[in-house]
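Batch manifest, entry 17 of 40.
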Amino acid sequence: MTTLTPTLDAAGLASSPFAATSATSNALPSPPIRAEYERSLPALPPSQAERLLPWTQRIWEQAWLRRGVILLVLAALWEVIARVQDNDLLLPTALQTGKALVEGLASGELIDKTRISLTVLLQGYLGGIAAAFVLTTLAVSTRLGRDLLSTLTAMFNPLPAIALLPLALLWFGLGRGSLVFVLIHSVLWPLALNTYAGFQAVPETLRMTGRNYGLKGLRYVLQILVPAALPSILSGLKIGWAFAWRTLIAAELVFGASSGKGGLGWYIFQNRNELFTDRVFAGLVMVIAIGLLVEGIVFQTLERLTIRRWGMQR
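Output type: C-alpha cells
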C-alpha cells in the first residue's frame, strides 16, 4: 500500500503531495497547435451549374415573365368573353381595344392626355408628401404635434377626396388648382399614418444612439427615424400613389377640365359620350399600364436599392 507523506518546503512548512502533483502537471508542455489552413474548392463548371435547374424553371424564375403570362391569360379571357357576347358597344374585344390604343398613341392624343394627367398628379403627389413629412416631423417632436396628427387623420382620412372637389372648385376655380388640392388630400393622410406608424416602431436602441450622438429635431428624423421606418414609408407612398391616381381619374371624369385641357379621365368621358367604347377601354388600359409601370419600375427599384439591399425586407 502506497503512503503519501507530506514534504517540507523552503520555509519548513508542510505541503500536500497533491499540490506538488498539480504543480508538476502545470509545468507540462502544452500540446502543439495545429496549423490552420484554407482549402479552396474547385469552381463548378458552367455546364454542370446549368444542369442544377431545368431551363424551364430558370426562365420561370423571372418575375417579368410570370406577370406577362398573367396579363396574356387575362387578355385571352377578355377576348373570349367579348366574342361570346358579340356586342362591340358594350364590350369590345381585346384586339379592337389594342387597335384603338395604337391609333391613339400614333395620333399623339393619348400621349398628350397622359402628359396632362401626370403633370397634375405629380404636383399633388409631391405636395402631399411634403405636407405629410411636416406633420409627422411635428408628431415625433412634440406632444402637441402628436395630438394634431391624430385629430386631423381621424377627421379627414375617412373623407373621400372626390367629395371635396365641389368645395375646391368654389375656392380655386375650374382649373388645375382644384385637382391639386384634392390630390394633396388623398395622399396626405395615408402617407402620414404609415410614416408615423413606422416612426413609432423604430427600436429604442436606435433612438438612444441618435440621442447619444446629439441628434435633435430634423437631423434626428432624417438620420435615425426615416432610414429605420423606410418600409412603412414606402408602403405609404404606394398607397398614396394609388389613391392619388384614381382620385385624379375620377375628378377628370366628373369635371374634366384642367386649365382648359383634360387628361385621361376626360378622354374616357368624351369617348363614352360619343359611344366609342373601344377608345374608352383604350383609355382604361392606359391608366392600368401607367400604374403597372410606376409599381414595377419606380417603387420596386426603390425597394431593391434600399430596404431589400439593407436586409429590412425579403
